[in-house]
DNA sequence: AACATATTTGGCCATATTGCCAAATAACCA
DNA sequence: TGGTTATTTGGCAATATGGCCAAATATGTT
């Protein structure tokens, strides 16, 4: 690994770190459906205004969202459009994993594998 | 956000946290090209054997890789195949961001935008 | 059995991340 | 101007993460 490779890896890591928190991931998923203002998140995640604001700053610094002030409100929207697809892929994967774990423990309770659709991972 | 939504979000977060470290991201990118044994990573990342081993454990617990012992070596391989695409999308995005930042500071040094290709994000 | 190699585990300390509170800004309204 | 709402910032304590060392395991070799 040379200097440049390391630098690129670290830049990507900034993005991934930004995603790697439940509240921030929730925010990103919400923003996938369109812009929202800060107060909407405060209600949804039941955290302090300052906490949400700091999470949004992390997302902004990582280049995942951009903000725009309109009146007294600040609206955020997604900048990196490949995120929703990826997140849904992860979602599929973890759901599959959960099913496999359940079926190992209690085979009779497991949900049968869908037949004509296949998940996007593996 | 209800209980189930929260649970799913947290499961996804485990995956993202696992990716969000330079050494682990490097490992995942290497594994995208095929299985490798632990010692190969130790050489490449210049960290203690125990450190690498722990990083691999994080990846395994998150369901991103699986391992197989053959002889005295343990080989790891990727389990979640949507990862490489996503990581390369992030790579494109951070590269674009870097170019934009440079062009804001020193326009004459900036790389011109490619004309017929467009990056996968935005 | 004794030894070498490959890897994992336990422990410990340094550093980074979170979340809350209080205070500071900013825009709008009376 | 003074007050209200929306948001950000600074500071701090609690918790989580990362990395190294030493010790434990596991496999293969002599």
What key phrases describe this protein's structure?
homodimer, 122 residues, mainly alpha, 3-stranded antiparallel sheet, 5 helices, 58% helix, DNA-binding
Oligomer: homodimer
Q: Estimate the mean pLDDT confidence of chain A.
A: 87
Order of helical and strand elements of chain A: HHEHHEEH
Give the number of DSSP strands of chain A. 3
* Class by SSE composition of chain A: mainly alpha
Protein chains sharing the most extensive interface: A-B, 40 and 40 residues
User: Overall 3D geometry of chain A?
Assistant: globular
Strand arrangement across the biggest beta sheet of chain A: 1-3-2
The parts of chain A where pLDDT drops under 50 for at least 5 residues are none
Our estimate of the beta-strand percent of chain A is: 5-15%
Question: What is the CA-CA span between the terminal residues of chain A?
Answer: 27 Å
Helix content of chain A: 55-70%
**Sheet of most strands of chain A:** 3 strands, antiparallel
Rg of chain A, Å, rounded: 18 Å
SS summary, helix count of chain A: 5
